[in-house]
From TrEMBL, chain A:
Gene3D superfamilies: 3.40.50.920, 3.40.50.970, Pyruvate-ferredoxin oxidoreductase, PFOR, domain III. CDD domains: TPP_PYR_PFOR_IOR-alpha_like. SUPFAM superfamilies: Pyruvate-ferredoxin oxidoreductase, PFOR, domain III, Thiamin diphosphate-binding fold (THDP-binding), TK C-terminal domain-like. Coiled coil: none annotated. Keywords: Oxidoreductase. Residues 258-473 form the Pyruvate flavodoxin/ferredoxin oxidoreductase pyrimidine binding domain. This is 2-oxoglutarate ferredoxin oxidoreductase subunit alpha. Pfam families: POR (PF01558), POR_N (PF01855). Residues 20-207 form the Pyruvate/ketoisovalerate oxidoreductase catalytic domain. It comes from the Bacteria. One of its GO terms (biological process) is response to oxidative stress. GO terms for molecular function: magnesium ion binding; oxidoreductase activity, acting on the aldehyde or oxo group of donors.
TrEMBL record, chain B:
Residues 76-223 form the Thiamine pyrophosphate enzyme TPP-binding domain. This is 2-oxoglutarate ferredoxin oxidoreductase subunit beta. It comes from Marinactinospora thermotolerans DSM 45154. GO terms for biological process: cellular respiration. It comes from the Bacteria. The keyword Oxidoreductase applies. PANTHER family: 2-OXOGLUTARATE OXIDOREDUCTASE SUBUNIT KORB, 2-OXOGLUTARATE OXIDOREDUCTASE SUBUNIT KORB-RELATED. Pfam families: TPP_enzyme_C. Signal peptide: none annotated.
Amino acid sequence: MTKQVRQIDRVIIRFAGDSGDGMQLTGDRFTQETASFGNDLSTLPNFPAEIRAPAGTLPGVSSFQLHFADHDIMTPGDAPDVLVAMNPAALKANVEDLPRGALVIVNTDEFTKRNLAKVGYASNPLEDGSLAGHKVSAIPLTSMTVKALEDFAVSKKDAERAKNMFALGLLSWMYNRPTEGTLGFLKTKFAHRPEIMAANLAAFQAGWNFGETTEDFAVSYEVKPAALPPGTYRNITGNLAIAYGLIAGSELSGLPLFLGSYPITPASDILHELSKHKRFGVRTFQAEDEISGVGAALGAAFGGALGVTTTSGPGMVLKAETIGLAVMTELPLVVIDVQRGGPSTGLPTKTEQADLLMALYGRNGESPVPVLAPRSPGDCFDIAIEAVRIATTYRTPVIVLSDGYLANGSEPWRIPEVDSLPEIRVDFASGPNSEDGTFQPYLRDPETLARPWAVPGTPGLEHRVGGIEKSDRTGDISYAPANHDLMVRTRQAKIDGIARDIAPLEVDDPDGDADVLVLGWGGTYGSIGAAVRRVRRAGGRVAQAHLRHLNPFPANLGEVLRGYDRVLVPEINLGQLALLLRGRFLVDVIGYTKVRGLPFKAEELAGVIQEVIDRVE
Amino acid sequence: MSNNPPVSPTAPNGRPLRGLKLVPRSDTAYKMKDFKSDQEVRWCPGCGDYAILAAFQGFLPELGVPRENIVIVSGIGCSSRFPYYLSTYGMHSIHGRAPAIATGLAASRPDLSVWVITGDGDGLSIGGNHLIHALRRNVNINVLLFNNRIYGLTKGQYSPTSETGKITKSSPMGSPDSPFNPLSLALGAEAGFVARTIDSDRKHLTGVLRAAADHEGASFVEIYQNCPIFNDDAFEPLKDPAERDNRLLRLEHGEPLRIGPDRGVVLGDYGELVVADIAEVGEERLVRHDAHRADPGYAFALSRLDQPAFAHVPIGVFRDVERPSYDRLMADQISEAQTTQGRGDLASLLAGGDTWTVG
């Protein structure tokens, strides 16, 4: 039987199941297949903080959403066209996000009276008509998997566990995905357990074959590769891109990379990744706590290494004192904060961008630190290199604010040519620097105001640094009032001066006639961009700009802000950038905030933008 | 600096000091004055820190290491001003964190001789966590903990080594805290080198410093240090010429444990160590000191011997066992990765994984 293949330009699929059902793996494999096929894509993993919440419950639901298209897209999508629900909890947790007419594939084996009751279904939604607005494909995924594996030397439990591969096979057929990658992945992953490998391969094939033969699915779909700019691409998550950016920063600067880190969600993957790259001379130190992680990184920086620490909000709080010491000792240090919902433990696995004011001001005293924020998973690579450049050029700690959405989400990334990466030139002090023939550790470069970086092992430059206020030039302890005033202002001027060394803020205002500017920062770039496109398609005039440098701001920011009647600032916090802009520029920006642990939906933002436009016009 | 013939970082028998295997040797013969910085020393008159500083400055030439390859890292407290008074590289960091900072430095720079200067508040209270983990990892650093059993810089509160019931500014009715025994703590943290010495005994102090430098990995040295302002004469019984020989147990590897002419240490029924009259138990029952025992039980028993306080205090090297340092293990993994897989190539790294080409 030859089935019809229908062309579509994009689709959003959400895999949802119990945290033990392997939904993240399933989504990740489908993403890799989609990436290697050449679609543009964006992903949104969403999982509970509990490793294995009680089976079949709402808190235990884990999902993975993937948006892929034959054209350039910016977000993982607002509402899924297809939901794969492995149990009643997964259906219940996700059904409200579905638009009318969405396809729902459910695993009927799990729709038992007990499982329905566990999540508060009084009647079976597959039978009571509550899903009438959707196309429902009710498939006994578990029992079909078990049946397909009858002749395999695996336990019933292991056979049941392979049901995610059956589902992946089915969806792979439905969207004509290439399968070599997944088959190869399973062979490698289970190389040491051949019987499990065989079972998973067979389950995947059985799912594919089921799609091809069943009457349930009359058509399969094809989403053509996207016409992205020429180049070689790979799919990349924000955490992987940060790790690669740090290695690149190490190679470009010639400084050995030293990572001091304590495991914390959602930043740990950077530690895991960097620990694999000892070939690059990367040293990873899993510290006893967050304080030790940053302390060791600073100690390594004193010794001439590229000192890096990675963490999330709760860890940032603990690192604050050491970051202050790095400000005072004026040593390079890169601090990566993968933001998550707060305060306190907050929402460990959910995204938020509420650490901005902490990054800028969360230390004692006047303690200025450059702050950067990547705008997409791929941009994490460039931002990490930029952080290394600024830290080493200006001899300062630099904070990078990534977030849970960027960290775990992925997108196609055009692999850069190494020759195209920025040059990072680091000169250690090698001799006396003052007129009187002595070495003065706080005698500054007149242009950057950076102090010399004299590393132990350099004869004649022995000196002491520390957290007590330093005397200008000599670096000796000083409590003198005028000196403190001078040093506080000088440290501030050094950081402010970086504005001369960063790209001006670019504004996307195609016709130059917009009255409203939408200004964002960090991980909201995709959502805002998709919303702006919607508004423009509907005839609205709107400009978009996105900050990657939060401290100092690009030099032209004030001018940009004053060029528009109204400035809308959407943030996943309660208005932290808006507060800074109002304070710095006296511009009455309009804040729009949501803190649900999830990225903005493009449709929702488009509505907000349109409202602001309507008010102006 | 003078032009005398070079000295080498060697132990008395001529072999290189174990903790300095990867540190370059100097062909400069330093003198004590070469290690004095131009900064005015600002401790209270009579502070034990002066004696320790003098002993340390006097000892450093013996290391035979270029001055620029020595780094002193400290935290916060009176003792932590140490780096300013030495003409080496140094960092006066933040409270309690010196072992963490030194870990990053030592782990990435095996060519440095790294010394951590800390106190009983800095090292055992706010920085206790970093201290125990640096010891268990066996980072190649030398930790000198100045124990004056009081908070000096904050003007006289009880510390984690102050005796229970101590009356201080923050404990007017007596401290309810039980103190740490720093050596028991270090041994419990798997320290490979543990020693104790006294600020006023320069010869002994220097000998212990030498032994610490001769250990590859973390060396932990407790130095009893007098605070003349807030806890004067805390260690007087161990310094008084009339009394000290009946209280001090000078540890010498391979020698019987003796306290003065008449007393010695024997093994108790439960593995503890017990002080006894030699006349009663006989010379042959005295335990012979063995600093190299792999099992830390004996060294731990030694660290508990001082009950009640100062009745019989062992000083010297309690434990000195070899195991690979953290820095070496870390460096070995890197060289193994580079030997078996070759040096990393950035372009291949970025282009790894599943890729596809457009245009």
